[in-house]
Structure formats: structure tokens, C-alpha cells
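Example (one chain per record):
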Amino acid sequence: MNISIIIPCYNEEDNIDYLVRKSKKILKNKKNQLILVNNGSKDQTSLKIKENKKKYRNIKLLNIKKNIGFGDAIKKGINKCSNDIVGYTHADREVDINDIIKGLKKLNKKDYIKKIFFIKGKRINKFKNGWTLSDVILTFLMTIFYSLLFGKFLIDIHAQPVIFHKKFFKKQIFFPNDLTFDAAIYIKAKKNNLKIIRFPVIFNKKEKNFGIRSN
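Predicted structure:
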């Protein structure tokens, strides 16, 4: 199965080369697509992406002049996807892009054909990977808040990566432009009775060296 991966990049000029190197396994499949969204960066992010496009034809650059937010970059990236399976994650080093390969392996042919899947990471070993007690408590409180608000059990809402069928996204009328996009798409997946597949991932805060995450 082939996948289009969307990664919003906001002031990530020092991180693009690293990200592409880490993506070699994904890019080796010429039918896979890596969409790097230059989300209104003020640095040389766009130039760095262009340099890497010369090495891999399945890297696509999408330039957005004004940064409206993380969700806006994802939505615009999805509209450029050439594959039915779509995934997204962050550009910073906290997240390993190869987790997308692990997540994709959780998808069986039956669920793919029915287009009913929603695959999402579940962050583990938080304290070993630079999380503070405040980080853990905030994540726990968000789980409680969103679960009570929407009447669905919504654990670890901002975990990455996220993988789904493009048709599921196209059926939805509205998604927010900011970081609440993660919560909104997860809630929609639950309400649409998609098969939710969670798998363990490392979210290493100690590795975050570059980039600024947009709203």
C-alpha cells in the first residue's frame, strides 16, 4: 500500500536535511509521496526543500505564504495527495517519521478496502524521553476534558503519526486551522465509527532541536 505523507514545516531550515535522511525507507518506494508544506516560514525552509527535491522526485513542496496554522497546512497538503492513504506528522525531531511505516503495517487489506480505518500513535515511556510531570498531567487532563465534552474516550489526542483514507477527510465539512485539528479529526473518526488503531510510539522531547511549531 502506498501513502502520501504531509509534514508542515515552519522555520525548519536546519531540520529538513535530517528529515529527508530519516525518510529514505519511505522515499525508496517511488509511489509514496512526501509533501513538505512550507507553512509561511521566514527562513530558508523552502530552499532546503527544493534542494532535497532534486534527490527525490516523490518529494513535493507546497508553499503557503501566510501561516494560518498547523491544521490549515494539513488540509492544503491533503488536497495535493496522489494516494488514497494519507498520513501526517510533525517536522521536528520529537517524532520519528519511520513510525508511519510501523503504523501502516497495522492496516489489513479488509479495512483498507472498506476505508474504515484511523491509525494513530500512542506515546509511551514519556519520562524517559524528556517529558516533565507538567507535560504528562496536561496530556491526562486533555484526555478527560475532550472525553467528557464529546462523550467518546479520546486518549493522547496529539500523538503522531495519524493515518487515514482520503475519502474520510473529503466527507467532512469542517476542520479547524490550528493545533485543535488533531482533536477534531480524532473525534470525527470516533463519531463515524472508523476502526481506531493505536500503536506505541516514542515522542522524544530531548531530540527537539529545531523549528517552531505553528498554532
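Caption: The beta strands are 3-9, 33-39, 59-64, 85-88, 117-124, 162-165, 195-202.
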